[in-house]
Write a structure and sequence with these properties.
Layout: H1 5-31, E1 38-48, E2 51-59, E3 79-83, E4 99-107, E5 110-119, H2 135-146, E6 154-157, E7 160-165, E8 168-174, E9 184-185, H3 186-191, H4 202-229
Parallel strand pairs: 3-5
Antiparallel strand pairs: 1-2, 1-4, 2-3, 4-5, 6-7, 6-9, 7-8
Length: about 230
């Protein structure tokens, strides 16, 4: 097998990049499709290290479930302590008094971030803006929340975000400087890796991404060992 260092490094980089892109789209899809125990809007009342206490003001329940045959409980909590909330990039500068929207799963007696945690500019779900890692993502998540979970399907194309609902496409965001990007919907991205059955596929995705990376690393080690024996 004729393998070079450059080809090995390229394969590893491409695998990891693909995994990160798929994971990002998958998280947004899960955020908008009830793949968590609760999606709360609230105010941070206390911070203890990386943990935070949130007083819930409202909840968003999506009109569509990722796991139709095994729907997750959409809990309605008054106050919740979230472990590791400030570990997330969007929340590193969070302070008591800040408003947030957080996707949570219950793990034993603890609550942890499931599919994302973002600052918001108010507690009114109908008008608030979600401040995500890009303007396009902010527009998509804000539209989902402002609709009370009704709007769940979106497409991205050259700096434009389009809502897809009831057979009608509506542009909700247009970048001032469009980027080169083929038309793709968040639904299509996820459906490439998730079948129409209702299994929770999140665990498998981690194995696929990091398993592929591990295999490539092993190939690199084998190549180096064989070369040293010559």
């Amino acid at each position: 097998m004729n393998i070079t260092y450059k080809s090995i490094i390229t394969l590893i980089a491409v695998s990891l990049l693909f995994g990160m892109v798929a994971y990002g789209a998958d998280n947004e899809y899960r955020f908008t499709h009830n793949d968590h125990d609760t999606l709360i809007i609230g105010e941070i009342t206390e911070i203890d290290g990386e943990n935070a206490v949130i007083r819930a003001s409202d909840y968003i329940v999506s009109s569509k479930d990722l796991n139709v045959s095994a729907k997750k409980k959409q809990l309605q909590l008054e106050t919740v302590k979230v472990d590791g909330l400030l570990e997330y990039d969007n929340m590193k500068n969070a302070e008591a008094g800040d408003y947030v929207i957080v996707s949570l799963n219950k793990s034993g007696n603890k609550y942890v971030v499931a599919n994302g945690a973002f600052p918001v500019d108010s507690l009114d779900y109908k008008t608030l803006k979600v401040m995500a890692y890009s303007e396009a993502t902010s527009a998509m998540l804000s539209d989902f929340v402002n609709s009370g979970g009704t709007y769940t399907e979106f497409a991205f194309s050259s700096g434009t975000v389009t809502r897809q609902y009831d057979g009608v496409d509506t542009v909700i965001y247009q970048s001032e400087q469009p980027t080169e990007q083929t038309n793709t919907s968040i639904t299509d991205q996820v459906q490439q890796t998730e079948s129409d059955n209702t299994k929770d596929f999140q665990g498998y995705q981690y194995y696929i991404i990091y398993g592929a990376g591990g295999i490539l690393v092993l190939l690199a080690i084998v190549f180096v060992v064989r070369k040293n024996r010559r």
